[in-house]
Design brief:
Distance between the termini: 27 Å
Strand order of the largest sheet: 1-2
Helix content: 40-55%
Largest sheet: 2 strands, antiparallel
Strand content: under 5%
Radius of gyration: 25 Å
Protein name: Reverse transcriptase zinc-binding domain-containing protein
Organism: Rhynocoris fuscipes
């Protein structure tokens, strides 16, 4: 869900509904004597409150669309009108799915900070549209979408897996090895933090809420320099 919001990726559900509507349009364009059209017309003639509705895919689709969009009528008696209604249905359904994701985000315990970073006015987050190396964007996205129990970073052909619930073994502060500790306070990274992040390293919101290209590069360089100098071997 977090990654769908971050990237603005289309839901599989939306794609399925789109294919179903396009199939309906294709069948409606057929001659009424063709078997697909005959079957569809028969399904349409069955009352939607019938006890056999579970065997009627058309009634199920209509009821589903009625529940998740503002469409009251599919206007299937007119092929031209139905074709014009399809984009409206898909736009309504896309908004419905996005609102569901946002509601899930607000109620989620997966991340304790992502809802502060997410720009609700946009779909794809702006930094993903920058013409930057995929290495920089990937690490920044991984940081922003990290969970409360798992951090996974791919940096310079190395894979680092961190459990934020564990105590940091790189310093003696007895702090959890979460993003805030790694990026802001861990003494083991003080020199590289001063080199790459200061004076920006004020809060997690500031670090991960920026869409500045130079700043995104600096965060990558900070992590690459810091993690590569550790004694523990990364997972490769």
């Amino acid at each position: 869900m977090v990654r769908l919001l971050e990237t603005g990726t289309v839901h599989i559900k939306w794609l399925v509904v789109k294919r179903a509507l396009n199939w309906l349009l294709k069948v409606l364009k057929m001659n009424k004597e063709r078997y697909p059209r005959v079957c569809l017309d028969k399904l349409r003639s069955i009352p939607r409150d019938s006890t056999i509705v579970k065997y009627n895919w058309f009634s199920q689709l209509f009821q589903f669309l009625h529940n998740v969009t503002n469409i009251e009528n599919l206007y299937m008696d007119n092929v031209g009108t139905f074709k014009q209604v399809i984009p409206v249905i898909l736009a309504d359904y896309d908004l419905y799915l996005r609102n569901q994701d946002i509601e899930s985000l607000n109620n989620s315990s997966f991340s304790t900070f992502y809802y502060y970073l997410y720009d609700y006015s946009l779909t794809t987050q702006p930094y993903l549209l920058h013409r930057l190396s995929i290495a920089f964007l990937r690490v920044y996205a991984q940081l922003r979408t990290s969970g409360h129990h798992h951090i996974s970073l791919h940096i310079n052909n190395s894979h680092y897996t961190i459990n934020p619930q564990n105590i940091c073994n790189k310093c003696d502060t007895n702090s959890n090895e979460n993003l805030e500790h790694i990026l802001l306070t861990c003494p083991a990274f003080s020199d590289t933090r001063l080199k790459y992040l200061s004076p920006h390293a004020l809060s997690l919101d500031v670090l991960l809420g920026s869409h500045d290209q130079t700043f995104i590069k600096q965060i990558y360089l900070f992590l690459n320099d810091s993690l590569s100098r550790l004694d523990n071997t990364p997972n490769t």
